[in-house]
Structure formats: structure tokens, C-alpha cells
Specification:
Strand content: 5-15%
Structural class: mainly alpha
Number of helices: 14
CATH topology of one domain: Glycosyltransferase
Order of helices and strands: HEEHHHHEEHEHHEEEEHHEEEHHEEEHH
Strand order of the largest sheet: 5-8-9
Number of strands: 15
């Protein structure tokens, strides 16, 4: 849906600017798609097609495996497109991993089964339910998600010792190493945890688990399980209370990761503090207080992952920190703002982010995994692995935000970009659920 404003808030675009970028993205999906139903060495076979994050070559670092939270964000670029039919298969790949390994691994490699990634399974399941309205599938899928919730995220002993403090959970790794627990956060590496991830209760993780509890209640409501509704709502209420008690800094009016070993907040302001808005955990008063700190994160190219770097000495490169911005964190923050009625802020930031991506694309002919949002013509700060181009979740979020926030006269003809090839390929694909998917128009972020 295009913006309701007659005058755009932030950078403006033309169809001529956007068309090459959108065509690049549409062509690039075929390079990222894989279908490997059988194990191949350390690569785990999956029942349905999946997408790798990137096709970088020449870096000595390549992807052939699915990644947990990348998969969720990549799928957001398929909504209301000819590839929407692939979304259900992506959910079922994640559930197949859970059923086989009793954890959804960081990635589809046997050596990644020792940790997970930020959990988005229930959100993903409910998106597919809204497309198909299949209650049997919903019940079976939510049973898998409940097992993930209980076994992995609420585990109280090794190898899943994540629930550690008053019902709140941390990131973990079977080798009980801080850096590998930090890798489970997806923010590898970041200044948030001061290289002590095992000692911190992360804001984003507990907001995601609150969302799980609310999603389980919603599924129970759909399925008519009255007793379950109350149970999950009580769990969500308890988590909300504990997050307010331990992760909310009343003096500053913002959420911070909490070191339960020292009893102190992290000194790092991060976009993890916006996850409670996305999860619907806040009241209007505290949502306003969170939004009052937006200027700490907002720059020329959108939102910086953290506020200006605090005085923390890090021995490893911290790509998940100032001045870098990341597509998934933009989508989470903007969806949270939209949820609480901050549409003008969301549009302004979306336009800044789209512009940062487009400036780089016009210079280099590609999208990349992260951007320097403080100075959009500068390179991002590098991480512990070579910078990747492509890039799955950047491509997906670019498409999603362009459709959600740009005016109709800024957008090229989307149908002509997708073309007939995708539809023909979809009809011929024996794994497709096309005949059961309703490809309707969407209202902003909601299916």
C-alpha cells in the first residue's frame, strides 16, 4: 500500500530509479534458491526449496545452507509476489529441522546444531495460516513451535540452559562459550554484551518469546482451545512484568540488556529496545518514551544498530553496532512504530533506508548485507567474515518497504518486473502450493 501523504517524508524516488533495483532483486532470487532434499556431508537435507543469504564469490566464504532468521526475513519479500507460494515450504523446512534435531539450528549444517538464532517461528506460522486458513496445519505447526519454546528457549539445564533468571531467557551454546552464545543472537559481533553474552538477558530474545506466548494464545483462540488461551496469556503477562522489572530502565525510559550476574544494565543503547514495540508489549505511554530516543539511532541512511559507540574496547570487529544499519532491524523497528501509530517516523526512516540501499546499488550494481547509515557513501564496518553481496534479507526488506511506504507514482509497474516467467515456473513446480494460495492485496505489513 502506498503512503497516504501527498508529500513524501524524506527522500523521493522515481520509477526510473527504482526499476533497475527491483529487477535486479527479482532476478537474484533464482541465484539464491536451493532444493536439496538429502544430506550432503555436513549440509542438512530439507524437504522443500530454501534460500541461502548470498551468492558472494571470490571471498573464500560461501553459503549453501539455510539460516533461521534470514529465512523469515527473506520470506517477507515474497508477500504479495509470485513467490509467495514458497513461504509455506520455508516454514516447513524450519519445522523439519526442529523435528529432527530438537532445535532449529543457526543454519542447515550439522555443525550449527549446537546453537539456534532469534526465534520467529510462530510469527511465520501465523502468516501462512492467514493465507490458507488451514486449522489442522495451524495446530500441527504450533505444536512444533511449542516444543521449540519449551525445549530450546525455556530450557533450564544443559544443553539448553537458556531460562536462567526469573523466567527470562538468554542466548546459549552447548560449549558454554560467550562468543558462540553471542552468535546465537544473530548480532555477531556486537558491543551489547561486552563479550559476556551468557551473563545477559537480551531484550530482543525476551520480546520474541513474549510474542510466542501471545501467538500461542491467538492460535488457541482460532482453534477454540479456551483453557489454553488463559494459560498462554498468563505466561505472557508474567514475562512482560519481568521484562519491565529487569530490562526496562525507568529513569531513561528505554529497554537495555540486563547482566543478571552483576545486576547492571548494558551501557549500550541498541535497536533491540524496539523489539517490544514490534511484539506489542508496550502501553502507549512507554511506547512514546521509547520513541523519544529515536534521534540516538536515526541518521542519513536510516537506523544505526546501536547509538554512537560507547567506550567499550572490543577485540573483534563489531559489525552489529554503530555506524552500521541492517535490513531486519529496520523492518522490526518500522513495524513496531506502525503498530503504535508513529507512521510519519516510520515513513521517513523507511525512505532514508531505501535511499541508502539505492545509492550503493547505483554505484556498485548490487545490494549488500549491511550499510553505513551514518555516512551512506562510506563502506560499512566489516565483521569477522568477509562482507557479502546479494543479499537475501536486504533485497526482501527493500521490496517490502518500497511497497509499504512509497507513493504509487514513485513505483514502477511491479507486475511487469515479476513478468510471466515466475508464474509459469510456479505452475510447473510440483512442490508448489499455488492452487491453494490466495494472492490478495496487503495492508502495509499485515497479511
Amino acid at each position: 500500500m502506498s503512503s497516504s501523504h501527498s508529500q513524501p517524508l524524506g527522500p523521493q524516488f522515481t520509477p526510473e530509479q527504482l526499476k533497475p533495483a527491483l529487477e535486479y532483486i527479482d532476478r537474484y532470487w533464482e541465484r539464491l534458491e536451493r532444493y536439496k532434499p538429502h544430506d550432503d556431508g555436513t549440509l542438512i537435507g530439507l524437504p522443500r526449496p530454501y534460500f541461502v543469504p548470498s551468492m558472494s564469490t571470490g571471498t573464500g566464504f560461501a553459503f549453501e545452507e539455510l539460516y533461521y532468521w534470514d529465512t523469515y526475513f527473506t520470506a517477507q519479500g515474497f508477500i504479495d509476489t509470485p513467490r509467495q507460494y514458497l513461504m509455506k515450504g520455508l516454514v516447513e523446512d524450519l519445522m523439519a529441522l526442529m523435528n529432527r534435531f530438537h532445535i532449529i539450528p543457526n543454519a542447515g549444517r550439522t555443525y550449527h546444531t549446537s546453537r539456534s538464532q532469534p526465534p520467529f517461528l510462530t510469527t511465520f506460522i501465523l502468516q501462512i495460516y492467514q493465507l490458507e486458513k488451514n486449522k489442522r496445519w495451524l495446530r500441527e505447526s504450533m505444536d512444533v513451535a511449542k516444543e521449540e519454546y519449551r525445549t530450546v528457549w525455556m530450557g533450564v539445564a544443559h544443553p539448553n540452559w537458556r531460562q536462567v533468571f526469573n523466567g527470562l531467557s538468554r542466548y546459549y551454546h552447548v560449549d558454554v562459550l560467550d562468543d558462540l552464545a553471542e552468535a546465537e543472537s544473530g548480532w555477531d559481533m556486537t558491543t551489547r554484551f561486552d563479550r559476556q553474552a551468557l551473563s545477559y538477558l537480551p531484550v530482543d530474545l525476551n520480546a520474541l518469546l513474549y510474542k510466542y506466548e501471545r501467538d500461542f494464545a491467538e492460535a488457541a483462540r482460532i482453534l477454540g482451545d479456551e483453557e489454553e488461551i488463559g494459560e498462554w496469556e498468563r505466561r505472557a503477562a508474567k514475562r512482560k512484568a519481568m521484562m519491565k522489572q529487569y530490562l526496562w530502565d525507568e529513569e531513561k525510559g528505554f529497554y537495555f540488556d540486563f547482566n543478571f550476574m552483576t545486576g547492571k544494565f548494558s551501557q549500550v543503547w541498541s535497536l533491540a529496545g524496539f523489539f517490544p514495540l514490534w511484539a506489542g508489549l508496550e502501553d502507549e505511554v512507554d511506547a512514546k518514551r521509547i520513541m523519544s530516543h529515536l534521534d540516538k539511532f536515526e541518521f542519513e541512511g536510516g537506523l544505526s544498530t546501536t547509538a554512537a559507540k560507547p567506550h567499550i574496547k572490543m577485540r573483534l570487529p563489531t559489525q552489529w553496532a554503530y555506524p552500521n544499519g541492517w535490513a531486519p532491524l529496520h523492518l522490526i523497528a518500522l513495524e513496531g512504530m506502525e503498530r503504535y501509530g508513529y507512521r510519519d517516523d516510520a515513513e521517513r526512516i523507511a525512505r532514508k533506508w531505501l535511499n541508502a540501499c539505492l545509492v550503493h546499488f547505483e554505484q556498485h550494481g548490487e545490494f549488500i548485507e549491511k550499510y553505513n547509515v551514518v555516512n551512506i557513501h562510506d563502506e560499512p564496518v566489516e565483521g569477522v567474515y568477509p562482507s557479502q553481496s546479494g543479499f537475501g534479507w536486504t533485497n526482501a526488506v527493500f521490496v517490502r518497504l518500497a511497497k509499504a511506504f512509497l507513493l504509487s507514482n514513485e513505483l514502477p509497474n511491479i507486475a511487469s518486473i515479476h513478468g510471466r516467467t515466475s508464474f509459469k515456473r510456479m505452475l510447473q513446480d510440483p512442490r508448489s502450493n499455488l492452487r491453494r494460495v490466495k494472492n490478495g492485496r496487503l495492508n502495509r505489513f499485515n497479511l
